[in-house]
Specification:
2 domains; alpha+beta; 373 residues; five-stranded antiparallel beta sheet; binds flavin-adenine dinucleotide; FAD/NAD(P)-binding domain
């Protein structure tokens, strides 16, 4: 007999959103998180941008879940008092050679269901942001910012108010199947080892997903979970007041969005993230001077007035990519019985950006898949 109906492994924004969706549907849910706080990994080390859905290949999960997730997230924030602001974003072409790319992005966005973009000339862009330098821009009014900690606290609150639990300092170290097909989850919690049996299991463990995926004992011959390749991003903070009210993004390079300017809820500006493929997940900032020079060069392409010595090393985040450097960007991977052959199990991999924006839509998709068996 199962001890618990559903276990979700991972107390980041994705695991919490899934836990909430299941709890709202009346399921008995326990979310297990290895750290002493929710959202201590990728979910608290990102840009906190609510993306509109401009860039992702039409028809991909990232495109669909970003647009659906954005609508759901704005509604959730409004209903639950989560701090957020629909501040809008300018995507800027800084040379004539970038205009074709700008137009191509507008077309992709349209196909993704982003219907509110406005094409601006340089004068119109400067009317919105007097400090900006560009030859053309796209204004995305539905891009915004969110307090990710406020969001996670609200999700946590919904889980517990529906009788669910978020259990901290509990690391899952083993997974097995019982003879009746339930999931035996081995935990290390506060120095003690224990095994808990559940009927339905979700793996939403970010960087820990591949290790857990290898333990699920797939019923389908040949199933292997995707490998995870960490890719670090550094952020610099702007000393002093930001002259910008919108987010400002340069033209993307492949799947990397470039050194962009984002704002936090207090209006302070930060720049980043850059892209550094690494072997391990580590959050050290490392050497700052050379990196600062690169940031200054990139930022001055769209903000020539960036004052000298105004960038202060901030923090880093690490993307859980499921493709190698040089390979085409992968879609979100949401594996259910069709992929691994195990009933009542959904495992997620490669939930990088726009995962924060998409969290509520991802959660509904996972809850639907679990309901299907
Ligand atoms: C630099 C950067 C910038 C980004 N910017 C944006 C943005 O502006 N907008 C946007 O929409 N998205 C953005 N993203 C993406 C977004 O942050 C992620 O998609 C999202 O946070 C992923 O959440 P998660 O819950 O899957 O992962 P995590 O937050 O990493 O949570 C996974 C949790 O699982 C736990 N865990 C792992 N293994 C175990 C185990 N064995 N037992 C128990 N617990 C375990 C971990 O401790 C962790 O807390 C960005 C990402 C990065 C890296």
């Amino acid at each position: 007999m199962a001890d618990i109906e559903t276990i979700v492994i991972g107390g980041g924004v994705i695991g919490l959103a899934i836990g909430r969706a299941l709890a709202m549907r009346g399921a008995e849910v326990v979310v297990l998180e290895r750290h002493e706080r929710i959202g201590s990994e990728t979910s608290s080390r990102n840009s906190e941008v609510i993306h509109a859905g401009l860039y992702y290949p039409p028809g991909s999960r990232r495109a669909r879940l970003c647009v659906e997730g954005r609508h759901a997230l704005y509604a959730f924030c409004a209903e639950n008092g989560v701090p957020h602001r629909r501040c809008g974003k300018l995507l800027v072409a800084t040379g004539d050679d970038e205009i074709a790319k700008l137009d191509a992005i507008a077309e992709v966005a349209q196909r993704n269901g982003v219907t509110d973009l406005r094409r601006l000339g340089p004068r119109e862009a400067r009317a919105l942001e007097p400090d900006i330098a560009c030859v053309a821009a796209l204004l995305s009014p539905s891009t915004g910012i969110i307090d990710s900690h406020g969001l996670m606290a609200a999700l946590d609150g919904h889980i517990t108010s529906r009788g669910g639990q978020v259990v901290l300092k509990s690391e899952v170290v083993g997974l097995a199947r019982t003879p009746v097909g339930d999931h035996a989850v081995s935990l290390r919690s506060g120095g003690e080892d224990a095994t808990v049996v559940c009927r339905r299991l979700v793996v939403a463990a970010g960087h820990g997903g591949t290790a857990l995926g290898r333990m699920i004992g797939a019923a389908k011959a040949g199933y292997v979970p995707p490998d995870t390749y960490p890719a670090k991003g550094h952020y610099f903070l702007l000393r002093g007041r930001s002259p910008f009210r919108h987010l400002v993004y340069p033209m993307p390079s492949g799947a990397w969005l470039g050194i962009h300017l984002t704002l936090d809820m207090a209006g302070a500006a930060r720049f980043g993230p850059d892209l550094e493929w690494t072997r391990e997940v580590d959050y050290a900032f490392g050497e700052a001077e050379g990196r600062r020079r690169v940031f200054e060069r990139e930022i001055r392409r769209y903000w020539p007035g960036l004052p000298d010595a105004s960038l202060v090393p901030g923090y880093t985040g690490v993307r859980p990519k499921i493709y190698r450097e040089g390979e085409p960007a992968a879609d979100f991977a949401i594996h259910g019985p069709a992929e691994h052959g195990v009933a009542n199990l959904v495992a997620l991999y490669g939930i990088e950006s726009p995962g924060l924006t998409s969290c509520l839509a991802i959660a509904e998709e996972v809850a639907d898949r679990l309901s299907a068996g």
